[in-house]
Design goal:
Radius of gyration: 22 Å
Number of strands: 21
CATH architecture of one domain: 2-Layer Sandwich
Strand order of the largest sheet: 16-17-15-14-20-21
Number of helices: 18
CATH superfamily of one domain: ATPase, nucleotide binding domain
Helix content: 25-40%
CATH class of one domain: Alpha Beta
Largest sheet: 6 strands, mixed
Structural class: alpha+beta
Length: 504
């Protein structure tokens, strides 16, 4: 047996996102040594569709891992373990040989809206809450599978396993099929209360239990890297690979958000609230999500909006080309949109929390001749944060009342996003020090899996402390409280107006 001597022991985390894959190398004290990323695209064969070729994920991993390892100065024998985080809800259908049968149907895909309507009537909200603890929404694994079964029965017949993206990538790395509770709980085929596949929902979906991957602990060791995967990634064959978790749960670990009472607000492409729970508690009105954390005795409530930072990207690309995000935010800092009567509903791809409406559409309201580039940019940013505030209010309905908010995501790069959150939430906002926390969290999870850290708490203690708090401005809090009440009236009022989407 070969004796492996690690001169600079380290941990490798892989974050399989929607638009890119990132790899991070941490030392055993949790210090970031290097990070690298590789982008890939989304295809939309028809309006409302969002797909991705799973082969892109493995190709991206080969590039990003090699780059991160080279930049870190570590060698293959230094890597103690690998773990993964991955985009949630996405459906990956593979055959008995583990080969994808079609492109993955992503979480942003809206084609299954008719199946959601049918399932809601068939199951009923009371059963759905008891069996899944979650609302039904287009883009989740269950309705995407129902769409596939209705529209491509041959692919459905040939499907041996329904996988999540990080589980497919881990299969490519190890040759072993499996999953864990944090990702499984986001499929709508899983009961987060019992941390087990939901038999009633499997029956409704026409699935046998053995079509779902076996469940394991998020920090459990799946297997070692195969020789082929090791050669492709520039690592050592047999390196332990940990099961991993959903991107939101792993990101929370990478931000140290593991204890009840902590709350994070992430504004990236989409927007999410994350609130850890010691016991599973779902929203009886199904406006929030209940998912499992990567910790064995933790759950989390999640509020999710579909287009947060994406709304500013849409504005830049389609209405204000030639501007950078920073330039738009700089201009917006000198405007007063909501206070001046201009609002933006950020529902460019439908919406989840709080409306759970795939047909919801975006709109500027109150636009006049006096409003220009700066006011429109400000309205978009305020509209995103108003919509996020609705998720915070729902958390409050379930007893979550944070003293402050950890702000995460790419929005932290501009101070206006942070000040808007403080003023509209009415709470101090602590900017996270690490904007790419999912890859960090995956590496920390790898460390828990192989005993580098003796607990999740020990791993979380290595996370860099947040930056100085952004305090709410009392005058702005008062102004935004008035504007927020008006914002909440806009969606119900516009919902009464017919549109092609509403009548489809």
């Amino acid at each position: 047996m070969d004796i492996i001597i690690c001169m600079n022991p380290c941990l490798l985390g892989i974050d399989l996102g929607t638009s890119s894959l990132k790899a991070a190398v941490l030392d055993t004290n949790g210090r970031l040594l290097a990070a690298a990323g590789q982008e890939y695209g989304i295809t939309s064969p028809h309006p409302g569709w969002a797909e991705q070729d799973p082969a892109l994920w493995y190709q991206a991993a080969r590039v990003a891992v090699r780059q991160a390892m080279q930049q870190s100065g570590a060698c293959a024998s230094d890597v103690l373990a690998v773990s993964l985080a991955g985009q949630m809800h996405t459906l990956v259908c593979v055959d008995s040989s583990g080969h994808p049968l079609r492109s993955a149907i992503l979480w942003a895909d809206q084609r299954s809206a008719p199946q959601v309507d049918v399932l809601c009537r068939q199951i009923g909200s009371e059963n759905l809450a008891a069996w899944a603890g979650n609302p039904l929404a287009a883009g989740f694994t269950l309705p995407s599978w129902m769409w596939l079964r209705d529209n491509d029965p041959e692919i459905a017949r040939r499907t041996r396993w329904l996988l999540q993206p990080k589980d497919y990538l881990r299969y490519r790395l190890t040759g072993e099929i499996g999953t864990e509770p944090s990702d499984a709980s986001a499929t709508l085929l899983f009961d987060p209360h019992d941390r087990a596949w939901s038999w009633p929902l499997l029956e409704i979906a026409g699935l046998s239990p053995d079509q779902l991957p076996p469940l394991h602990a998020s920090a459990g060791i799946c297997a070692g890297l195969t020789r082929q995967a090791a050669a492709d990634l520039g690592l050592r064959a047999g390196t332990p690979v940990i099961f991993g978790g959903s991107d939101q749960a792993v990101q929370a670990l990478g931000q140290g958000v593991i204890e009840p009472g902590q709350v994070s607000s992430t504004i990236g492409s989409g927007g999410q609230w994350f609130a850890p729970l010691a016991q599973p508690e779902h929203d009886a009105q199904l406006r929030l999500h209940l998912f499992c954390h990567v910790l064995p005795e933790r759950w989390h409530l999640e509020a999710a909006m579909l287009t947060a930072g994406l709304a500013l990207r849409w504005l830049r690309n389609n209405l204000l080309p030639g501007s950078t995000y920073g330039e738009l935010a700089d201009a917006a800092a000198g405007a007063q949109a909501a206070v001046d009567g201009l609002f933006f509903l950020p529902y460019l791809a439908g919406e989840r929390t709080p409306h759970m409406d795939p047909t919801a559409t975006a709109a500027f309201i109150g636009l006049t001749l006096r409003h220009g580039r700066a006011a429109m940019a400000r309205a978009v940013m305020e509209g995103v944060v108003f919509a996020m505030r609705q998720g915070l209010d729902l958390l409050g309905d379930l007893g979550v009342h944070p003293a402050n908010v950890l702000a995460c995501g790419g929005s932290n790069r501009h101070p206006l996003w942070l000040q808007l959150q403080a003023d509209i939430y009415g709470l101090p906002v602590l900017p996270a020090a690490d904007l790419e926390a999912a890859a960090r969290g995956a590496a920390l999870l790898a460390g828990v899996g192989v005993g580098v850290f003796d607990s999740f708490s020990a791993a979380a203690r290595t996370v860099p402390a947040p930056l100085a708090a952004i305090e709410p401005n009392p005058a702005a809090v008062e102004q935004y409280a008035v504007a927020y009440r008006r914002f909440k009236q806009l969606y119900p009022a516009l919902k009464t107006v017919d549109s092609p989407l509403h009548s489809a």
